[in-house]
Design a protein that fits this description.
The structure holds two protein chains of two kinds. Chain A has seven helices and nine strands. Chain A is α/β, with parallel strands linked by helices. Chain A has a single domain, classed as 3-Layer(aba) Sandwich (Rossmann fold), CATH 3.40.50. A six-stranded mixed β-sheet of chain A has the order 5-6-7-3-8-9. Chain A has a three-stranded antiparallel β-sheet with strand order 2-1-4, covered by helices on one side. In chain A, a hairpin with a 2-residue loop joins strand 1 (2-13) and strand 2. Chain A is globular and about 50 Å long. The two termini of chain A are 20 Å apart. By secondary structure, chain B is of the alpha+beta class. Helices cover 46% and strands 19% of the residues of chain B. In chain B, helix 21 (651-678) crosses helix 22 and helix 21 runs antiparallel to helix 23. Classes of the chains: A alpha/beta, B alpha+beta. The interface between A and B is medium-sized, with 30 and 29 residues.
Chain lengths: 222, 1065
Amino acid sequence: MLIAKGIAKSYETEAGIVPVLSDVNLELARGDAISIMGPSGSGKSSLLHILGVLDPPTEGEYTFDGVEPWTLEEREQARFRNKEIGFVFQDHCLLPQCTVLENVMSPYIVGERDEAAEERARTLISRAGLTERIQHFPSQLSGGEKQRVAIVRAMIRQPRLLLCDEPTGNLDQQTAWQVLTLLAEMRQELNCILMIVTHSPDIAGEFSRQYTVRDRKLVRTV
Amino acid sequence: MTGRDLSRRNLRHFWRTNAAMAAGVAIATATLVGSALIGNSVRESLRTIATARLGNTGGAITAAQPFSEAFATRVRPGAAPALHFEAVLKHQATNRAAAKVLVYGVDERFWKLHQTSDPLTGERDIVFSEPLAEEFNAQNGEGVLLRIEKPSEVPQESLFARKEQSVRNVRFRYQSSLPDNTIGGFTLHPKQGAVRAAFVRLSTLQKEMDLEQKANLVVMPEEARSDLPILGHLRLEDVGLRLTRPPDCECLQLESPSGLLRDDQVKRALDQAKKDNLKAEVFFTYLANSIRTPAASVPYSLVVARDQVPEGMIALNEWTAAELSAEVGAAITLDYFVWREEGRLQTESTVLQVNGVFPMAVIGDRHMAPEYPGISGSESLSDWDPPFPMDLELIRPRDEKYWTDYRTTPKAAVSLQDGQRLWETRFGKVTAIRFRADSGVPSTLNLTPSTDLARDGLALLAPKRQAEEASSGTTDFGEYFGYFSFFLVVSALLLTGLFFRLGIEQRLREIGLYRCLGFDQSAVRRVFLREGFVIGAGGALAGLGLGGAYSAVILHGLRTWWVDAVGTSELGLHFSVAPFTSAIVQGVGISIAIILVSLRHLRPLSPRQLLSGEGVKRAGSAPRWMRYLAFGLVAVGVALLVASLAGTMGAEGGFFGAGFCLLVGAALQCRLWLEHKRSEPVRNIAALAVASAAHRPARSFLTILLFALAVFLLVALESFRHSPGAANLARDSGTGGFPLLAESQWPIYQNLNTREGRDALTIDEDTVRGMRIVPFRVRPGEDVSCLNLYQPTRPKIVGVPKALRDEGRFRVSPANAWTLLEKPVVAGEVPAMVDANTLEYVLHRKVGDYLDIPHGAEPVRLRVVGTLSGSLFQSEILIGEEQFLRVFPEEQGFRFFLIDAPEAMWGMITTALEERLSDNGFDIAPAAERLAQYHRVENTYLSTFQALGALGLLIGTVGMAAVLLRNVLERRKELALLGAVGYTRSDLVRLVTLENLALLIAGLGIGTLCALLAVSPALAKRAQGLPLASLALLLGGVFVTGVVSTWLATRAALRAPLLDSLRSE
């Protein structure tokens, strides 16, 4: 269960303090999938970063399955991210020096390893249609292939929360749908909470719960 | 994949940045290792040179007066006696001569001690050290003439000594040579340059010098730790004493071949007489030119001073009373010569009253008087050949008869007090002591020959130990290279830090991703530390090799291009383990430290900030602590400068401490100024360039500092360079206003400023018209200037006459320093002055410190009361002449001279004096040449250290080019945009060039200003101006180098089309 209450976020700039989010409230249960839309700079990515324990809120409370991640020590926060959260970014963020398999396995560098991890990774890579690319480096992959690797990486630890920030923003339509399909399938298998930030109304429309960030607040539209 | 695997991948993937970091670590390590190796190598080389030349010598005994050869065997079996002199050597085939050649008369015991076969095959053979053989290109069988001064038993500065040198010419045949890095270069005092030594048969030299069965050197395999075992082996004759039994005396008589007994010898003898229950009577016999009354005169008579005569009285023997028709109560005038310390004879007189006329035997006998050379052995008065003027017209037949019948029987007696008061010298005031027993002739006097070796002219040496200690050197090259390399090391570290920082900025998103994946801060740190360990180890290993190569190059330079600085080409590379192991540790430590410091500033950033690249700090207000730090560093730098100027801190501490603080503080101030400039409106390309430089303040600061460090070193060193130019003959200059100086191998006793002195040396008056010569007494010893690499333990000491001190010549500090030489502040100490350079850099002392000079059982303590600036006295320590005579009475004559004369006479004076005084090995040189010799060494040191500055400049240039390229790469879109809105390519080139020129000029300005400030205390002390021409040339060269490299880097960076970067947007 994800509970966010009164979340606010401001940034300090040279020009002064810029509020981005104000009094954001959200409750999501396991298996929920939502889309978040909004104009550029509206704060939707900022919300994702707060819920992903990447950037602290200026105000508000955030609880995930009874744990308040923002009250944890830095080391515990890192462990929390490692185990519970998967991220997919717009520009995939793969490690250029690692192969596809190594990128998928990268969460296990610091997390506890289980015997089945590599087998699971190979299975997921195969599910993503990248078996022939398993030893290739990111520079040898297309945009869609890279994003599929990023999705597999985000899933490998079987997280309970999956956060996607414009995962198809840099892809053509066909590739974007391939990626989304993979995302949906894997989410369903894991029954995790999925939050996806997008500019695309078509993609947003695929979700039963749709939100938009308007005037710094999160407003449910569907 | 594990964390280790990730680190391995990272090392390979980011190899460019890692290689740059490793290069920075390698440079820093190479510099540290190189400095340590250089210092170690110079030390070891000096030690090797010195100890190789000593062979198996552990200890040695030398003597001013020869002792018996048997003493050597008594002291230690296996010891080797020898005669050693400094000689003038003339090579007959080439007719060329060499002065100050070390000549050793040795026998098979010497060669056996050193486990080498005796190279001398014939009685007249001579073997040279190789440098000496090469100097003359000597061939086997060629004739060699040695001119050697025979030591005089009679003190030269006394009435009865012959003042002209007793120089012997001895002929030999050249046989072969020995390498001077073996026993062939035998010398008891370490010397880095070539040794000119010659070896002959001991027996031959003894015979030629009339020193049969005598030696003045004992070479021993072990060092004698104290005087005691040596003293026990001395006999009376070894220390210039003898006990005789005068006929018709029933007594023992103690006397000396020198004619005088020292005060300590007299006291010891009298004390011993008491113990042996003997009665002792002291005599002081002297020669009166005349004993006269108003009506009559008796010429050239011996007078004895003894206890039985009341003070103020004179007792005449019957013969003298009759000659003078003198009765009791008559006034008698004694006329006599005394020898004055300034080198001249003076006639004095005294009037005494006759207290009695006595038989001859009561006054004294002929055996009371010492053996006077040229007098005692003469058959007649007219045959006298004394070392003072004598008027033969005064001698009457009756006088001749007295001489024939009675020889040196005294004609009169005065009181001991009167005699000692009138005729005493610093060598003694007693000529003989007689000892009588209550009954019969005393069997013996149990007199200890000596209690103080130095007093008796003997010195106990530990040449090997001295060589080991002296090898640490006056100039610790390792230390100085380390000091000057400090700036190079800092530059290398800055460059390494700069490259790592650039690398970190490149990998910010990667770090953000690690954090997203669940890496905590320490996990991220571990990834980079693993990389850092490998980079550091790799860089350090490369640095070891580079350091070895760097030190090899420097040592090669010291042997060749910079040989003037060290005076020897025998410096070799000596490895030691310590620098290598510490280098690895330092290299790894450096890279780990840089990584930790660089990662530290990322700690406060959230994963989001890292992912978005916000970790690259853009321009903003500098944190307050930076302002405080900038101000604080400048304040500390100024405080250190002031302390150095005031003399409360050494020049080195002031230079390095103040220099570093001012540099960093000024660079920080520059960074703060840039940020201030950023807030001003940008209206033109120049303003845009400054704004761009301010946009990345950390990079700009590092670039400025890199350049400033290099410029600082180059300018600071150049400031000390001595410019060649016309000699400064001002009275307060380094020459003291004297155009010429002279040194004499053997002392001159006459006063060259008097006609009498010049006549005695047959110097033509016309050839020395207008000349004024200042003579100095010298205690020979080690050169304490920068010309000597070895740490001096027995420095050369010079006695400065009062007349010169009163003239106030040379630049001295404090202003009244010359007057401070008169009297010690603390009893028992001797005030001294030293050249400022020598005091600081060779002796490592300051004003107020003391130096203990070995001199027998108790060293002589010199207290430094003042300094001279940039003087020609850098090779010696100066004390007042009065003090010199008090503490070193055994040193006689004058060996160093400053000559003032009209310029037109310089040439004539030089020729005349060198010719007339060639027997003394008299050599004149321009005073400016002596200064130039020191300057050459100093300038050479500066050049070697400037090589480091040049390396620093290279690092600064590389750093600036790297930053420039990186900036352009990051700003490709921005520059492309400017192109799209109408900037031409040359506008863009100008923009980037101006930005970097601003940094270059800032670095140049800061480095120059801080350097000039840092060197000001040292320059003030030396009263030296700046070499403006060479400084201007240097700065111009640095500026041009910077401009050219900036322009080239800019062109290279902007060569690729910029619009591609807009297309990808």
